[in-house]
Amino acid sequence: MENPKRKPPRRKDDRVILHFDLDCFYAQCVEHQQPALKALPLGIRQKGILATCNYVARHRGVNKLMTLAEAKRLCPDLVVVEGEDLTPFRNVSKQLYALLRSYSWSGKVERLGLDEIYLDVTDMVAYNVELLNRNCLNQSYFCLSRADPEQGFQYDATVFSGCVYGDDGAASAAQGLHGDLVDNALYIRLLLASHLARYLRLKIEEEGYTTACGISTNKLLAKLVGNKNKPRNQSTLLGLRDETVFSFMDSHGLRKVPGIGSKITRILEGFVLGKEMDPNIHSMDCSVTAGQARAHPSIQSPAVLDKLLGGPGSERGLAGKVWSLLHGVDDTEVKPARDVPTQISIEDTYRGLNEAPEIRREMALLSASLLRRMHLDLIEDDHATPAQGHAHTQSSMSVMVSRRWLACPKTVRLTTRPYTSPTDGKPYDWARASRSAPLPSYVFSFTITSEQIVEKLVAEILLPLFYKLNPSPKGWNIGLINVCVTNMAGGDGGGVRDIGAMFRRQDDVLREFTAYDSTASPSPFAGAQAERKTPLTSESVSGASSQGDDMELCPLCELYLPRFALAAHERFHTMEEDGS
Ligand code: DGT
Ligand code: MG
């Protein structure tokens, strides 16, 4: 029987999205600190590989994620700087995110990793389209504030800024705005957005950093087109016709399409090539393009894809999503900016830790670094000036600075994974397992030292969690430890007004199903064992699998609970509302 006719999904082009990607990010951060390095080939090392390298090094054949030995062979005078401590990179990332956010009207500013930022500028562009004067387009003015018309910049609205990608765009964009294009709303919106992108890139350059930028109508297309001209450049995807967008998408290797991970890639690659693929290959390389998958005669609809990708345990709607991505369709929103992250996690990898003192030492290091991050991201200084009416000069004015938590994570989660060597071919998440516990209130103390907090946290919470995750007394072979704090209270902008009350309430909530470990199974952690009066984690009460997947988040207080306890927990909330 003939397959039903293929019907492409409909792409919505009513938004304008910018995607910024900082050039050789870690390397730029280091160069910013040591400008003399800009002229030299520079690599940033993490765990024996080059996490990234600057473009001087790239022109000498060095690449991101190359081994150090290979990089040195290609470029013997490569300057290598240690990049294990992410703090300076995080700080720059925050600074540039805040800068771009300050220009946004909608607040839709989303960070992806440390060096990529999406901006939904639909509203700014629409406003400025209305301001266009068709009689003097080459002297247009882009207004950056609805309230203050003086804030803005001049631009030439007869031409695009930067590179333009798309067969119907290249010629007209180069020649300038004319003919029917002046009436093409999408063309005009993308053209204005290209000037806004340039303006913002220059603002970032004033801070000392260069970026690439992609401009399009959704996140997927903006990210992909931004890669076309790197570094220090920008590209607009002028997809006025479906065919332009399809041929743009088709040219990408399957694995390069954001949202199509390695598992899906191997299934589709195997199907197109008609051979079995090893599902454990995680390389970004793929011998099949998105176009080959999209145009394959047997892949006529999401229903066919569903047969390939569906099955027990697969994500709901996955086939439809992949079908959309292959056609350049992505309706996901740019998430609104948040003042605080939803979670903070720190992890490190090891070549197989087996001794208790090593585990304790590494956990202390990770916890110290986690606490520093929490202080950096979650604490705000309140500057209180003296009461009005007191005579004072600027220099003599004393300012009282007090600190307050903007948000408090309520849960700490420990994740471990055994060591595997890259040649084992094990997927990244292999045997990764997690356990959670309530985060104790002393973590938020301003009166005890960070060292004391770390010591208590490791002994009372993390080591017991570790032992739950790795119950056998020997042979842990730990390859990864991740400590994460999550379940933010007060992250809605109001901050945490009363930490004590928050924890009293948390204790009340927990009392109902808190158990204490009286069985005291043999533990290699003598110190931790002695202190084993810590409430056990919710998981241990539920007897959950080590994956913690029978846990559920309470939608009212965002506490992680064993699923069996959720009903009782909801009753607790009802009682609270009734005042009973
Ligand atoms: P670009 O954007 O091609 O000019 O170069 P980068 O260095 O900005 O690369 P990008 O945007 O893929 O990643 C941003 C930073 O994240 C980069 O400076 C290093 C780090 N990074 C990215 N991928 C990996 C990775 O797989 N492992 C490690 N350790 N670091 C990575
Ligand atoms: Mg980058």
UniProtKB/TrEMBL annotation:
Pfam families with a match to the protein in the record: IMS
Keywords from the named record: Mitochondrion
Domain (UmuC): residue spans on this chain: 17-261
Entry annotated with the keyword Mitochondrion: yes
Region of interest (Disordered), ranges: 520-548
PROSITE patterns attached to this UniProt entry: UMUC
Comp. bias regions, Polar residues: 535-548
GO molecular function: damaged DNA binding; DNA-directed DNA polymerase activity
Protein name: UmuC domain-containing protein
Localisation: Mitochondrion
Any one GO CC term of the record: mitochondrion
GO biological process: DNA repair; error-free translesion synthesis
Keyword Ion transport carried by entry: no
